[in-house]
Write a structure and sequence with these properties.
globular, six-stranded mixed barrel, four-stranded mixed sheet, 14 strands, alpha+beta, 11 helices
């Protein structure tokens, strides 16, 4: 995720604090990696607590266009989280007529819980991600020289698998990817973006000259540690701390083409993809929950803090403008850099504006889990 480039460089009525359990099994994630599972006894691997709150504690709740949540909510209900079955049945049967009706529905059936760290810290970090779009070719050439690969055949038997640098320099490592090419890109930095985001769209020129758009979705990684190229640039003295936005990183690569390879090798993780058709371009990629993401209404979370399929109220700001960004969203994804109690990665969608917003987003965050009334909160 771009969030990994940036962030991984890394009143209320209180009730008894509660902590979420491990998430249910899910479909393959749209992000590069998932956190490790908690211990068998259900104790959260990282400290988190939920504190019961009143709806009046949610900043900006009365201003949210809450009816926009319904497509994302109904998609999450296709893989309903434990405790959500009855609420999902109601959501499927009822379509609020307007935003006010949607807010009344949420208040009638859900209970807010302020999400805090185990030490009681209620403020965390919001970053952003998006689905990139790149031109590509089915055939390599002097122009199209950077392969997007499906997983190597021995990925499951060799852990960790070859690093990025080894694949580029060792014949034995490169041989494991021979014949696994999905398509070819122009720029190795574009491949890095695709791998960090975990999925993307390719406008592919086929061998017969036809052009079509496909999606490449996350299919695995080499089990090597993720290392932030933004952090590498800061450590090299190329960028100032706090200035490693994605636009700044791309500008640096254009000014320093001879050092791009060293920057790429600083991150040993390789992400592999599977090709998927794109019958409906209005739908986002599948997140870790296994459902399509909705621009502006889906977030990635640490599932040991907030289970997939949970409605969440976020209180943050947009990058640069500091415009309040307060709305109901669904926890539908995760990623290697999304770790901790109060941590969210906001899905902006696709296109130039989504790229610009995601690449700069690193904002303070507060969040509330919205859990079904009558259903015991996760423990």
């Amino acid at each position: 995720m771009v969030a990994a480039i940036l962030g991984a460089l890394a009143a209320c009525t209180s009730g008894p604090p509660v902590a979420p359990p491990p998430p249910p099994p899910s479909a393959p994630t749209a992000s590069p990696a998932q956190p490790e599972a908690p211990p068998p006894d259900g104790t959260p691997a990282r400290g988190v607590r939920w504190v019961a709150a009143d709806w009046s504690a949610l900043p900006g709740f009365s201003d949210d266009r809450a009816s926009e949540l319904w497509p994302a909510l109904r998609r999450s209900c296709q893989r309903a989280a434990p405790g959500w079955a009855q609420t999902c049945a109601r959501a499927a049967a009822e379509a609020p007529a307007d935003d006010a009706a949607a807010r009344r529905w949420l208040m009638a059936w859900l209970q807010p819980y302020r999400v805090e760290s185990g030490a009681g810290q209620a403020e965390g970090l919001a970053t952003g991600y998006y689905e990139p779009l790149f031109a590509a070719s089915r055939r390599p050439s002097a122009r199209w020289r950077v392969a997007v690969h499906a997983p190597p055949a021995d990925l499951a038997t060799r852990r960790p698998h070859w690093t990025r640098q080894q694949i580029d320099t060792l014949p034995a490592a490169a041989a494991t990817l021979s014949g696994r090419e999905i398509a070819w890109l122009e720029d190795p930095v574009d491949l890095l973006v695709l791998q960090i985001q975990g999925s993307g769209r390719l406008r592919v020129t086929e061998a017969d000259g036809r052009v079509q758009q496909i999606r490449v979705a996350f299919a695995g990684h080499n089990d090597q540690p993720y290392q932030s190229v933004g952090r590498w640039l800061i450590d090299q003295g190329e960028l100032r701390p706090g200035a490693a936005s994605w636009p700044a990183i791309k500008a640096w690569t254009l000014q320093n083409p001879a050092r791009v390879q060293a920057m790429l090798w600083a991150n040993p993780r390789m992400v592999y993809f599977r090709e998927e058709p794109l019958p409906d371009p209005t739908l986002g990629p599948r997140g870790a929950q296994g459902v399509a993401l909705t621009p502006g209404r889906s977030i990635a979370v640490d599932p040991q803090s907030v289970p997939y399929g949970t409605a969440v109220w976020i209180d943050t700001t947009e990058p640069l403008s500091a415009t309040p960004l307060r709305r109901a969203v669904m926890a539908q994804d995760t990623g290697g850099a999304i770790v901790g109690a109060v941590r969210a990665d906001y899905f902006w969608g696709w296109g130039a504006e989504a790229e610009a917003q995601a690449g700069r987003m690193k904002q303070p965050l507060r969040m509330w889990a919205l859990w079904p009334k009558g259903s015991a909160p996760p423990r």
